[in-house]
Structure formats: structure tokens, C-alpha cells
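Memo to structure team: turn this sequence into C-alpha cells by end of day. - J.P.
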Amino acid sequence: MAGARLDARVAAAVDATATRRPPVRIVHLGLGAFHRSHQVWFTARADPAGEWGIASFTGRSPRAARAVAEQDGFYTVVERSGAGEDHRLVGHLVAAHDGADLDALGRLLERPEVAIVTLTVTEAGYRLGPDGHADIDRWRSAGDTAPELSTAVARLAYGLERRRRAGGPALAVVPCDNIPDNGAVVERALRGFAEEVAPDLAGWIAGHVSFVSTVVDRITPATTSDDIAALRETVGYEDRAMVVTEPFAEWTLAGDFPAGRPRWEDAGARFVTDVGAFERRKLWMLNGAHTLLATTARVHGHESVATAFADAEVRTRVEEYWDAVSAVLPDPALDLPNYRRALAARFANSRIEHRLDQIAAETAAKLRIRTVAVIARCRPDDVPDALLLPLAGWIGGVLSGRRDPDAETAAIEDAARADDPVAALLAVVDDGLIGIPGVVARVRALVDTDTPQRPTGAIPAHPGGHS
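Reply from structure team:
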């Protein structure tokens, strides 16, 4: 689907990169649907002159790289809402690589014109310890002291070492994952890894790499074969790298770009001195409610956010969850009433099939960030049931045999076999939970009453108790 082969009606929709591919100045780790609907989309809209090309590397599977490469980097962003559909063909993704191709990554980061590295590797992809610092033991078990370097942090460290040895200039690292203070988190992880395996690199990072914190938001479900067929029927071409997303898109950034950046603000991005308040609003209100749905609505037969939210009982639970979160977000600048109304409209958008099983991946890490962080803002004797429901729903699912992809599966399996599995599973998420008066007993009761596939009374009450 390169520019020369596009038919006239398609070429009319392509940005300036159809005729002149931009030079690679951004390298991305984590080539998935969200990256294509968000960072590449923002860059294409902000850079009509085609000066900021992106080279992206996959995470665990090379499939996305093959799909994009077969189309010379062009793909369609389909925005769906109740008002209809909008299509944009994007050409700023000028190269796509298998994430295991470390030499390609090193060659790119040796180039002085490369100014930015962005990342979308999910919460679990950084392999952080519970304190948010580098977990070297987990990296060792993943093979990250071996040549293959399987994690994003290890691969980034390798690429930066190549840049250091080449005498390359400073650049910015911009994580775009749902992690609080993600810039500082990635800095700690990267420097921790470098100190372990390459002390000279750790010192170079301190003087040559800035870390930008971000808040990102755009619901982007996995593309299906039906989506590909529908696009072919509508516009007359097949696009196996297409993405389907909602009209809403948000990007808030704070930090320095020592080698420059696109004018993302021209595409609607927000630059601030501190992303904290916007981060908490998004992680706790939107992502937290998503995890609530993923852990509690599937047992009622719901498969997507929209179908679950259309269920009056489920929607009431979401509204109660938002009430509980709003109580610990007092900043009037966040405009929570309007934000909640916008969230409700987005959740109700039936044109976007945001699957709950997709959201349910890596739930242990997500609960830590999206729910436990809110509980920590509550008085210990006044934690609402609404905040305990995601924990109870997840535990009920685990004890009923449901297994979603999770980097912490081994710990989850061990906890599920414990004498008091509820307390043990809570401790997997955050061991501080079992010290909050009444939480273990209340979660146990919620698991008993709110998990239809488990018979009432099936959860053992540990005689020692954690109430």
C-alpha cells in the first residue's frame, strides 16, 4: 500500500508523507494498536511537512511489524462513534522492526538526528518491583543479562549504550503507559538496570537523557477480521495494519526535549509542568473503571465495555466507583462532572468493541496502580465497597479457575493454593491491604456474594483472620 500504488480515492486521504517519507527522528518500543492510534496519529497531525518519521519495534511478537512493513508503513485510523466513521491514512510510521532486532535498534539510536524514544509496553512490561524500582532478579529470570534482552528496559539500555559509544547527543525518553509518574519510573528502571550491567552507561544516562512524564488516553481495541472486511467494503482497499479507535484522544506531557520535538500541541496535546492531577484522574476514573468491568462484568455474560455499561446494574456499580474516586480527587481544575459525563459517553459507544478480556490482562499490576492507590487515599476505617469490588471480582475469577495473561501468574497460582487464598491474593496485589482493618473479611464476603460461578460459602474463612 505504498504511495505509488494507492488508488486516487485513497491517496487523497494521505498526509504529506505519501510522496516524501519523513526522516526517522523518533524510535518507538511497543508497536501495537494503541501506538498507531495515538503517538503516530498525533505526530502525523502535528507534522504536515513530514519532518518527524517514526521507526517502531514490536514487543513480544513480530506480527505487527510484518503487517506494517508489507504496507510500507501506511495504515488507516478508523474513528467510530454513534455519529458515524472517519478514516485517515497515516504515513509517519516509516519503519517497523521485530523487537528482537537489537542491531536495527542500535543503528537507529546511533543516528544523531534521532531525538526521542517513546514506549508503550504496558504496566507489566517494565518488570518493576513493588516499590517501583528495577527488579534485577526478574530481569535475570527473563534472560536480560543474556544477548537476547527480552524486556523494553533492557533493549533501551542496549540502544543507549550504542548511542553513548557513538558519541551521540542527548535525547528524550517518553513512556506512554498507564503508570503513575511514568517518566520517573522509567528513569529509575533504566538507570537501575544500567548500574547493574553497564555502570558507564548509567553515568551517561544521567547527563544525556531526559525523561518525560505523560498521560495518554484513547480507547483502541484489538483489530478484528470483521474490522478489516468492513474497511475494505467502505473504502475499497484491504488494510491489515488498520486500527479502530474512538474520536477522543488525549496526551498530556511534562518534561524536557533536549533535541527538539514535533509540535504535538497543534494536534491537541497538552504540555504542563506536572502531569500528576491529570494522571490520577485518568488512571483512577477511566482505567480503574475499566478494571472494575473486566473483573466483575464478565461473570454476567458481558464481553465489552459498551455491553457491560448498558446493563443498569453494572452501570450503577461504575457510577458508585466514580463517586468513591471523586471523593479523593478534590482539585477543581480537573472538572470532574464534565469528565464523568464524557467518560459515560465513551463507555456507552457501542461502535467501539473494547473487549473486557483484553483489559483483564495483567490485572494484578493494574489493580495496584488503578485501585489500591485510591484506597490509600481513604481513611482506613472508611474504604467504600465500590473500591473493593475490583479486588473481589479478580479474586473470585482466580479461585473459579479463570486465568488471564499475567506476568505474576506464578505468585497468583501460589496464593490461590494458600490456606487463606483471599488474603494471599490480596497480598500479591499489595500486602498493605491485609493490614487495613476489615478489608480481608469484606473482600471475602464480596467474593462469596458477587461471583456467580462459585457456590456461596465456598471461600474459607481463615481462623486467624485479617479483619
